[in-house]
């Protein structure tokens, strides 16, 4: 048996297509992967957790963290965490959409940095997408650069963490193509904001995903409601 890599990466793995591809890229980059998943009161929390566990099995990840962050439902202000706010189904909104969860990626990266320091990891992977995303302010190169600096200033001198964002400038079609190229089990991923049994096909996330498959001339393997 080959010995495990001595370089470790913590992968933030939601169970969605982007974070799953980012985790496969981390594996191809030669890292031993430790996966972290956040249950933050999102509508599809159970389905995303199932996707996360399936993908960890696919990647043969033995060490994983499932972190509960209950306060997002207290804060509300997002259609993902406040059931009184409807998930929009009329296409991408102008400006920052109501599905944006306040500073979610900043909080995720901060918690992951604590895990990375404990595990003596050299890198953290996150599947943020700037150009083809929904206009979230916490998915940009500038934000990642600034939070990387803050994390390394606020940790031990011996801790030096690089945040890797391999998808940040890809379109959804390029993400689908890359995932197919790397044999990523897309049938185990989940992107829908609304539903847990069959994807709705009309929320922002489903639209972006379906459009990506369409432009990549590929068929999405997950079940959708008849539209």
From TrEMBL:
EC number: 6.3.4.20
Binding site for ATP: 13-23
Amino acids binding Zn(2+): 192, 200, 203, 206
Catalytic activity: 7-carboxy-7-carbaguanine + NH4(+) + 2 ATP = 7-cyano-7-carbaguanine + 2 AMP + 2 diphosphate + 2 H(+)
Presence of the UniProt keyword Metal-binding in the record: yes
Needed co-factor(s): Zn(2+)
Listed pathway(s): Purine metabolism; 7-cyano-7-deazaguanine biosynthesis
Note describing how the cofactor binds: Binds 1 zinc ion per subunit.
Entry keyword set: ATP-binding, Ligase, Metal-binding, Nucleotide-binding, Queuosine biosynthesis, Zinc
Gene3D superfamilies found in the cross-reference section: HUPs
GO MF, one annotated term: ligase activity
Function, as annotated: Catalyzes the ATP-dependent conversion of 7-carboxy-7-deazaguanine (CDG) to 7-cyano-7-deazaguanine (preQ(0)).
Cited HAMAP family: QueC
Family, per entry: Belongs to the QueC family.
Matches recorded under PANTHER family: 7-CYANO-7-DEAZAGUANINE SYNTHASE
The protein's name in its UniProt record: 7-cyano-7-deazaguanine synthase
Organism: Arcobacter roscoffensis
Gene from which the chain derives: queC
